[in-house]
Amino acid sequence: MAGNAGGRTSPDLSELAADSALLARSGTAERVAAILRDRITEGYFPPGSRLSEESISGALAVSRNTLREAFRLLSHERLLEHRLNKGVFVRVLAVDDLVDIYRVRLLVECAALRTLGEPPYDLTAVEAAVSTGEQAALAGDWPGCSTANIRFHQALAGLANSPRTDELMRNVLAELRLAFHVMADPRRFHEPYLTRNREIADRLADGDAAGAERMLAFYLEDSRRQLAEAYAERLTAR
């Protein structure tokens, strides 16, 4: 870790530099935005961190104009914000943001299960995300567990076989990751949901989409409530 802006430690950009290989010589702002979106989803850039235009453009080997366009795209997705005379920062979510994110999740994820049709279902991505989360937990890698959990919900939405739904959920879940940083004890928050992820996957494997949907609805409400309480505690502590 290196650098310090506004009291926050910025990440070592050597890892981000490796992502430059993902960009073709004709790399576009959309591709840069996709890389940064993934890094935000993984927790690489936490809420409140300043994104250095000079450092990131150098790490990704792209022009500043390309990077500025990527920043603009991610600002439109509510992942970044421009602060006058200060630069570009990863957003810190408000309680209203959290409520709206879970409203969208409930509508999209539950609908994806509700409209599955007849089993069997292709659960390859769902099972992979569940297994990755379980392995991360065994290793004590709670940030990795958080990322696997995001992938699990992306995979659930992916059962709808809709590119537009996939894109919507990528953006919503990337924004959700910003909320996870308010949890003082990541293990206490994420560990119980590993079991629930497995239970939902097992229900789907058994062909019980309706049962999986009911479990998911309760799951999402519990998660929303926990995060809302953590936000309230943070605001009280200020």
Describe the structure concisely for a colleague.
The protein is mainly α and 238 residues long. The protein has 10 helices and 5 strands. Helix content is 66%, strand content 7%.
Structure, explained:
By secondary structure, the chain is mainly alpha-helical. 66% of the residues lie in helices and 7% in strands. It contains ten helices and five strands. The protein has helices at 14-17, 29-41, 53-60, 64-76, 95-114, 124-138, 142-158, 163-180, 186-205, 209-237; strands spanning 2-5, 8-10, 50-51, 80-83, 87-90. The strands form two sheets. The protein has a three-stranded antiparallel sheet with strand order 3-5-4. Strands 1-2 form a two-stranded antiparallel sheet. Helix 5 (95-114) runs antiparallel to helix 8 (163-180) and helix 6 packs antiparallel against helix 7.
List the helices and strands and how they pair.
Elements: E1 2-5, E2 8-10, H1 14-17, H2 29-41, E3 50-51, H3 53-60, H4 64-76, E4 80-83, E5 87-90, H5 95-114, H6 124-138, H7 142-158, H8 163-180, H9 186-205, H10 209-237
Antiparallel strand pairs: 1-2, 3-5, 4-5
Helix pairs in contact: 2-4, 2-8, 3-4, 5-7, 5-8, 5-10, 6-7, 6-9, 7-8, 7-9, 9-10
